[in-house]
Amino acid sequence: MGRVIAVGEGGRPQAPVRDDRFGDVLGLVVARNLLGRPLLTPQCRDFDHADEIRRALYRSAKYYCSCGHSSCTRRYRNYPAGGQPGGCPHGGQRISARADVVKDADGRYYVQVTFRDKTAAMQAIVDKYGPDPDNWPYNPWARRIRKDD
After folding, report:
1. What element of type H or E holds 112?
2. Contact 39, 61 (CB under 8 A)
3. Where are the domains of the chain?
């Protein structure tokens, strides 16, 4: 199933819902230099609760920039374009998240999450594969062609 986009007045699609529930957690991760380390959340009630926490962590990281400007992540890219440095012009740090629901031997659910610096990750890709996104192993802006079975 594809993404479901809410339709507003006049049939126009709405912007995705911003979710900053874990913004304070991201601030602590950056302040304590825990980027790149796998972290485990406290025990979750059930799988649905763990999945909701996983999604909220991802959405919070998507819109997080330590500069505090609410639209920073929408206005400025994470990679250098046209000789200009990429990232936040205010000196903020952006974070990406990789979160998975995990289950221990006793059947308890947790969320294991790893946060990374977005700008440093994109710069590493540019350094390794060059500035042309067509040469990258994954191009997030490439147009996908669906095969009809």
Report:
1. strand 109-117
2. no
3. 19-135
